[in-house]
Amino acid sequence: MVNKAKEVIFYHAGCPVCVSAENSVLSLIDPAVKVRIVHLGQESGS
Questions:
Q1: What range does the domain containing 14 cover?
Q2: Is 39 helix (H, G, I), strand (E, B) or coil?
Q3: Pair 5, 29: CB distance under 8 Å
Q4: Residue 2 belongs to a domain
Q5: Total H helices, total E strands in the chain
Q6: How many domains is the chain partitioned into structurally?
Q7: Residue 13's closest CA among 42, 34, 33, 44?
Q8: Residues 1-46 pLDDT 10s
Q9: Residue 20 lies in a domain
């Protein structure tokens, strides 16, 4: 049995390498999976 995620979280710092990685990873994820992108420089520390 394969455990499929319903939501994934991608953390990044906003640098060009992170943005490139984000685009690459997003192209590999099943479109049915909800993706939350967390930019570490913009996310509050609550």
A1: 7-39
A2: strand
A3: no
A4: no
A5: 1, 2
A6: 1
A7: 42
A8: 566 768 889 898 888 888 898 889 889 988 888 999 898 877 665 5
A9: yes
